[in-house]
Amino acid sequence: MKKRLFTPGPTPVPEHVMLKMAEPIIHHRNPEFNEVLTRVNQNLKYLFQTEQPVLTLTSSGTGGVESTFVSLFSPGDTIISVNGGKFGERWVKLPKAYGLKVVEIKVEWGKAPTAQQILEALRAHPETKGVYLTHSETSTGTATDVKALSKLIRENANALVCVDGITAVGAHELRFDEWGLDVCVTGSQKGLMIPPGLAFVALSKRAIAAMETSTLPKFYFDLRKALKSYEKNDTPWTPAVSLVVGVDSALEMLRAEGIENIWRRHERLATAVRSGVVALGLKLFSEFPSYAVTPVWLPEGMDWKVFNKTLKSKYGITIAGGQDDYAGKIFRISHLGYYDELDMVTMVAALEMTLKECGYKFELGAGVQAVLKSFAQ
Ligand SMILES: *Cc1c(COP(=O)(O)O)cnc(C)c1O
Questions:
Q1: What pLDDT, in 10s, does the model give residues 117-140?
Q2: What is the domain extent for residue 299?
Q3: 62 alpha carbon to ligand 1 midpoint, in Å?
């Protein structure tokens, strides 16, 4: 059976990227690898729209975010962290584990943080050293207006603007320098279209300066070490060589398509999928939908396990379910990374056939028709 992955990480890997990764391994201290990393470092700047360094770490995305907490801050520092879902929640727990004071802004799942909420927290805590925002909250498929909030934070505080861009980079417009961001992290298995195992961390001049005074304990995730090696297009430890070779190839693809075209493609695919599920009479979950993933309420009374099993066993499709309170209540369709229009037609067609088999009443073909109409516009 043909396998079709529609999850927001891992995401499908292009065939020629997989072939690159299958080539004989090269040594990370020889000129061949240095050449690859030099190109990767350049292309990552393009992806993040920055002139600043973007470090490549061997870890999942969470390790990338952890590296920013331990490398930029000191025990007792105050951090404002927005918790609007599973990942925002993680950026509350993680700094607490390191003895940072965390001011949590709780946001209802499916909603985005407002300027008012950020402003109130900043006014109540003028000592704040960093504000953590999740650009695309994957658990709720919700986008945050990082551009506007970054401006607001910059105008009202000295705090560093730190962004979990893990499912936003490569899906949503993101301009690191122009928007005045200080930290932005992504992971390899999301918009970058390669398997899990690498994290990428962009750092502003202010963030680099903060690293000089940070006293939290660190070693492997010490970004000062990573930055020093980066300047020679090197890494402090053995990197995941095959993944770096893979991301080199994936970044060349992204460059060829053009970053603005990539953002537009994600918007186009997300819009089409949304119109497809709405045409089937289903309800969207998020008030501020992300271009990376579309969460949808399961029809009343439908058993998620049966629904999911049907999609997988009959059509080879893997989607994501809901988490926490929404487990068994919503499902999430990803359109992040290596996808095109026909992939979305396939996904909605399989969704229709599955819904039909699960006893849901609707006009067969209505979703696919809406998807096609959306693309024709
Ligand atoms: C996937 C994801 C993460 C976690 O990354 P890991 O690679 O699983 O550590 C963090 N934030 C968001 C928004 C994500 O989608």
A1: 999 999 999 999 999 999 999 999
A2: 4-8+258-376
A3: 6
